[in-house]
Design brief:
By secondary structure, this protein is α/β, with parallel strands linked by helices. It folds into 2 domains: 3-137, no CATH class; 142-391, Purple Acid Phosphatase, chain A, domain 2, CATH 3.60.21. 43% of the residues lie in helices and 16% in strands. It has 15 helices and 12 strands. The chain has helices at 3-28, 34-37, 39-50, 52-63, 69-99, 106-114, 116-138, 177-189, 207-211, 214-218, 241-250, 277-281, 294-298, 317-322, 341-344; strands at 142-150, 160-166, 194-198, 227-230, 254-255, 259-263, 268-272, 307-310, 327-330, 354-358, 361-365, 383-391. The protein has a 6-stranded mixed sheet with strand order 1-12-2-3-4-5, covered by helices on one side. The protein starts with a helix and ends with a strand.
């Protein structure tokens, strides 16, 4: 477990809890019981609620404690709702400051000062609506279609391939098996020529993947030229990346870890990179080492064939362009997953969702099918990427 990440997360939660607790006391202090407003009761309750998810998720993952799946689900929902509440409350407070300076809104401001719970219930309704919308998006997957051209021919003379991308399934103890079954059925109906899975297949441990019989379920994915997978950063959070590879292999996936694979039919070179987290977690005493550079992998690839790169995190775009990659599939970002994180993630990645074309290079970033933490997606949605790739000289 990354203790630094846990400390940062708890610090942010403390800031979030202080702000929301302060605004909650202002809005509802006049209508809630006086005993509940006592500081030695109110604030411990606030911080217990705010810190519930990280205090359950991280120690349980580290210690291997078997807690009820409903507890993970409930605290994850609370975690997401609090993040949305923080952003919504902050926006409302900024608008309120502006409203105080507008003469025609003074009567409304006076009403809010006399009855602050009116505004409190309004903000609460907005948060509940966002949570409901986020749950709907997370459990109502859609297909996202792209049409693009690769300026190299296929060996067998075909002009088009349909490549289906799945990413960030994050299979955990509270994943929906029915949603995964629906994914398999929908992908097969698309009749793909190739399926690529771009990392974070599991959330942290491979045990829920095995317990929920995912090897059998995901082995039902069908395509003409096979199913190919790479590891994401979450595959390095569990027991062992090799255990994950073994489980995915049982699902009829070909797992690529800094591998260059030539597909004789139709004549494509697949470059599957290990995740960037491999280098972060490498140490002199471990068997791990940093992942190979794309330049080193490119020396093993035939430049006459179309190059398709699978890289979990869309970090090194300029390097992919420099190495003449034709098409790259990535995930990882979730497009922030829900508001306001969808705004934050744009600070770290050039492309957080969708398709980017630069010269002969094309990048497709999926926002993923599953979720990390809160099972909420807003404005993103659970998606299956369908890329209809045209090949021509």
């Amino acid at each position: 477990m990354n203790y630094f990440f846990l400390i940062i997360m708890l610090t942010l939660q403390a800031v979030l809890g202080t702000y929301l607790g302060w605004r909650c006391r202002w809005a509802f202090g006049g209508i809630l019981p006086s005993w509940l407003m006592a500081w030695y009761i109110f604030w411990p309750i606030v911080f217990l609620i705010v810190a519930s998810f990280p205090l359950i998720y991280f120690p349980a993952r580290r210690l291997g404690v078997e807690l009820p799946s409903w507890l993970f689900f409930a605290t994850a929902i609370v975690f997401g709702a609090l993040a949305m509440a923080f952003a919504t409350t902050l926006i409302v407070d900024v608008l309120a400051l502006i409203a105080r300076r507008l003469p025609f809104l003074q009567s409304l401001c006076s009403l809010v000062r006399q009855h602050p719970h009116y505004l409190g219930f309004f903000v609460l309704a907005l948060v509940v609506a966002q949570v409901g919308w986020g749950l709907y998006n997370a459990y109502t997957p859609r297909e996202t279609y792209y049409a693009l051209t690769v300026h190299k021919p296929l060996k067998n003379g075909e002009k088009q391939l349909r490549i289906v991308q799945l990413s960030d399934l994050h299979i955990s103890r509270y994943s929906s098996v029915a949603l995964m079954q629906e994914m398999v059925e929908r992908v097969n109906r698309l009749q793909p020529d190739m399926i690529v899975i771009t990392g974070d297949i599991i959330d942290s441990s491979v045990k829920p993947y095995l317990d929920q019989d995912m090897p059998r379920l995901l082995s039902g994915l069908k395509s003409r030229y096979g199913v190919y997978a790479i590891l994401g950063n979450h595959e390095y959070f569990g027991e062992s990346p090799q255990h994950d590879v073994d489980a995915f292999t049982r699902s009829n996936m070909r797992v690529l870890r800094d591998d260059v694979l030539y597909l004789d039919q139709p004549g494509i070179t697949l470059i599957g990179r290990d995740d960037w987290a491999r280098g972060i977690r490498a140490s002199p005493s471990s068997a791990l080492h940093g992942r190979a550079t794309l330049a080193a992998l490119a020396t093993r690839a035939d430049p006459a064939t179309p190059w398709i790169l699978l890289d979990h995190q869309p970090r090194e775009i300029d390097e992919a362009i420099a190495q003449k990659v034709d098409l790259q599939f990535s995930g990882h970002t979730h497009n922030g997953q829900f508001f306001p994180l969808n705004l934050v993630v744009k600070l770290f990645y050039k492309k957080t969702w969708g398709m980017l074309t630069q010269g002969t290079y094309t990048l497709i970033v999926s926002c993923g099918y599953g979720t990390w933490g809160p099972p909420l997606r807003l404005p993103a949605y659970a998606e299956i990427v369908v890329a209809d790739v045209h090949f021509q000289p």
